[in-house]
Amino acid sequence: MSTKDSKKLLHLLHTHHSSFLKSQVAHAIGMEMYIRSKQINSKEDLASFCNSYIGNYLVYNDTIIIKEIFLQLRKNDWEQVVYLAEIYNARKNVLELKKTSRQAGNRLLDRLLTIQSSPLLEKWQKEIKEKDLLNHYVIVYSIYAYEQGFDLYSTIETYLYFSLSNLVQHAVRAIPVAPKDAEKVTLEALDEVDQATEMAMTLSFKDMKNNAIGLEISAMQHKYLLSKLFIS
Questions:
Q1: Whole-angstrom Cα distance, residue 144 to residue 193?
Q2: Above 50 in pLDDT, residue 3?
Q3: Helix or strand or coil: residue 179?
Q4: Which residues contact 148 (CB under 8 A, 6 or more apart)?
Q5: pTM reported for the whole predicted model
Q6: Mean pLDDT score of the chain, rounded to an integer?
Q7: Res 217: pLDDT
């Protein structure tokens, strides 16, 4: 890897850094009910959940949206970018997931526009003044990564790694899992991240599907908890 490529990768990883996101629980909400019901109760359970979440859920939803936004921006087709955001918003069936995803998107957009000039994000900011419900985290991240000149593969891979590390960080406190076990889960799941990224590069819009019904039901239940481990 060249120095230039290494710097770009660090830039992408920094974009997701939890210290600057304030909170990002959209990926963890569904997991909370599995933890409470003791279905995720060990390092092995967590590893299985993370692999399924990345390889079955994110690959056929978020990564396809990232790829399609890149394709439409290359064509300079802004209307299709907005359409993709509408599709993504509509596919978020659970209100709790919609809410946290939008909150994360608003926080990321505000943060990125504060630290540097970004014509595409400024255009997106104007777009969501009338359509604020479309401002999900993955949309903001995709537009930003494209404008900064990051390649699609790295953009998807770092998004999946961020999702993985976010799940593990929440699980450490909630299960709880020992830090060394959490680190093992993360390192072992990197193979799944690589495979999922490779798979994502072969998929298109027609491959989108919902194969996480259990996760969505779990997220619905989260809304009615009187006390919550994960809050946005």
A1: 21
A2: no
A3: helix
A4: 11
A5: 0.87
A6: 84
A7: 61
